Amino acid sequence: MKKYLILFNISWSSFLQYRANLLLSMIGIAIFHVATAILWINIYSGKEMIGGYSEKEMITYVLVNGLLSIYIFYSNIRYIIDRWITKGFLSYWIIKPINIPLLWFTEDAGRRIFNFLLSLIPFGIVMLFFAKYLILPQNILFFLLVFVLAGIINYLIFHLVGVCAFWMENTQGMVRLVNIVITIAGGTLVPLSLFPGAIGKILNVLPFKYLFYVPMQIYLGKIGTIETLHAIIIEIFWICLLYVIARIMWAKGIKKYSAMGG
Amino acid sequence: MKRYLSLIWQMYRLRLMREMEYKPGFIMLLFGVALRVGVYVFLFWAIYQNITQINGWAFQDILLLIATFELVDYIMSFCIFPSLLYELPQNIYWGDFDLKVVKPINPLFFASIQYVEVVDIAKLASSIVIFIYVFSTYQFDIHVGNILMYICAIAFAVIFVSSLVILVSSLTFFTVQGWGFGEMLEEYLSLAHYPTTIFRGFFGKTFFYIIPLVIVATLPVQILTGKADYNIVFYAMVASILLLMIAIFVWYQALKKYKSSGN
User: Fold this and answer.
1) Does residue B57 sit in helix, strand or coil?
2) A20 and B180: CB-CB below 8 Å?
3) Number of C-alpha atoms within 13 angstroms, CB side, residue A32?
C-alpha cells in the first residue's frame, strides 16, 4: 500500500507544479456556473417553481453541482489510459511489481482531490456572493458518501472506455460520446425532473443519474432516508459490476497488448 | 496570399489523413462533436418545456443563437483556437517554436495554422441543420439586408474572438506554461451560448464593455431577427478592429521575449 501512497504523493506534487494553470481553469469553470446561475435567476422572474425546483433550490443545484463536477468529472484518466496503451508506455510499468489499474486509480484520485481543493477558492468566493440563494446540505453524511461513490463510478466508466484501447486504435471518439451521455443523463446541466414525458422516464431509468442528479437530490433533502439508502445500495452495486467488468477487460486486454500499442 | 491558402490546405489535408487512419474513431469523433452541439439544444429544450421566453428570447431565437455560436466556433476551432491556445504553449515549453520563427513566413500566421481540427466540421454541419430547422419551422420576417449584415457581424465576431485568442496566447511567451489562460478563455467564450443581453450589473457590464461577449453570437442573432440597436453594431465593429490591432501589437512585443530556452 505504501508504494501507492508514494505514487499519490508524486501525482500530487506534479499537479502542484501546474497550480496556477489549474486555478485559472477552475476560475473559468466557476465563471461559467455563475453565468448559468444568473440565467436561472432570469428564468425564475415571476415564477415560484420550475420542474419541482424553487429558485433557491435551482441556484444551489447549479453551483454545488459545478463544484461536484470538478471532483467527479474533471479527470484525465480517459486520455491517460488510451495514451499508455496506444503509445506503448505501458511496457515500462508492466515489468514492475505494481498493480497498474490501481496505479491509475491512485494518480487519478490525486488529481481529483487536488482539483477539488483548488476549486474551493473560486467556488467559495462565488458562493459568498450567492449566499442568499444557497441552501445548506440537508443530510451531509449521506451526501458525502454518495458524492465519493459517484466519483468512483465515473472513474470506472472512463477506465472501461480507456481500456478499450487494447482493441481500438483510438478511443477519443468514444470518450466524447460517453462524456456527452453523462452530461445529459447525469443531470449535470439541469435536474432530470425538467425533462418531460418519455425522455424524462428514460433518463430516470439509466444509471448515470447517480453521478450528479441523485447526490444533489440528497443534498437538497428532496429524497428521504429510505430512498437515500436505496441509492447508496444501487451505487455500490454499480461499482461492483463495473469493477468486475474492468477486471475481465484488463485480463483479456493485457494478453492482447504488444509494445507497439493495442 | 496564394502561398498562405495553399499552406492552410496542406495542413488540413495532412491532418485529415492522420485522423482518417482509424476510421471508426474518426466517425465517433464527428458524432461526438455534433452531439456536443446537441447538449445545448437539449438544455434549452428542457428549460422551454417549462417556460415560454427568457427576457424576450423565445426558443427559436435561442436555437439561432446556438447555431450562430457554433458557426463562429467552427471558424475559430478550425485552426486558430487549438493552434494558439494549446499547441503554442507546448512549442514554447519545449523550445520547438524556433522551427516556426526561422521559416520564411509570418510567425503569427504559421503559429495559428499548426494544428487544424478537422473533426470540427461536425459543428458546421450541426449549425446548418439548426438553421434549416428553425427557418422551416418558425416564421421570421428576414430581409436580404439583415442577412448581409449578419454575415458582416459573423466576420466581426471572428475578428473579436481571434483577437482575444492572440492576446491570451501572447501571455504564453511570459509565463512559458500558459494553457490555463486558454482553458479559462474557452469557458468564458462558451457563455456566448446564452443570450448575453439578459445579464445585468457586473456581468452585464463585463459582457458589454470590458470583454464584449455580446459580439460573438447575441448581436449577430439580433441583427438577423431585426432586433439590433445599430449603435451597438457600430460599437462592435470598432471594438473588434481596435482589439485586433492591440492583439497583433502585443503578440509581436511578446514574441521578442521568446528566448528559445524551452522549460
Assistant:
1) strand
2) yes
3) 23
Task: State phi, psi for A257 to the nearest 5 degrees.
Answer: -65, 135
Contact between residue B139 and residue B46 where contact means Cβ atoms under 8 Å apart: no
Please tell me the distance from the alpha carbon of residue A134 to that of residue A127, in angstroms, as a whole number: 8
Gap between the terminal Cα atoms of chain B: 35
For residue B186, give the chain A residue with the closest CA. Answer: A28
B81-131 confidence digits (pLDDT tens): 788 888 888 888 777 888 878 888 888 888 888 888 888 899 999 999 999
Contact assessment for residue A71 and residue A116, using Cβ atoms and an 8 Å cutoff: yes
How many Å is the Cα radius of gyration of chain B? 19
In the numeric block, which cell numbers belong to residue B22?
A: 482509424
| Interacting residues of A24 by C-beta distance below 8 A, sequence separation 6+ | B180, B181, B183, B184
- Reported as a single tens digit per residue, the pLDDT across A49-69 is 888 899 999 999 999 999 988
Shortest distance between the Cα of A260 and any Cα of chain B, in A, equals 16
| Residue A39 and residue B198 in contact, taking contact as beta carbons nearer than 8 Å | yes
| Interface mutation vs chain A, best among B35, B45, B168, most A CBs within 10 Å | B35
Write out pLDDT tens, residues B162-183: 999 999 988 888 876 667 888 8
Q: What is the spatial distance between Cα A107 and Cα A76, in angstroms, rounded to a whole number?
A: 10
Cell output for B205: 457590464
All 3 cell numbers of residue B142? 428576414
Suggest the residue from A14, A16, A32, A129 to mutate for an interface test with chain B (most B CBs closer than 10 A): A32
Cα gap A30→A25, rounded to integer Å:
9
The confidence band for A262, taking pLDDT boundaries of 50, 70 and 90, is: very low
Are the C-beta atoms of A85 and A262 separated by less than 8 Å?
A: yes
Q: Average pLDDT over chain B, rounded to whole?
A: 87
The three three-digit cell numbers of residue A257, written as one number: 497488448
**Length reported for chain B:** 263
Helix (H) or strand (E) holding A53: strand A53-54
Distances in Å between the Cα of A122 and the Cα atoms of A36, B184, B235 are: 15, 12, 32
Q: What is the pTM of this model?
A: 0.88
Length of chain A: 262
Cα angle value A62/A65/A66 (rounded, 5°):
85
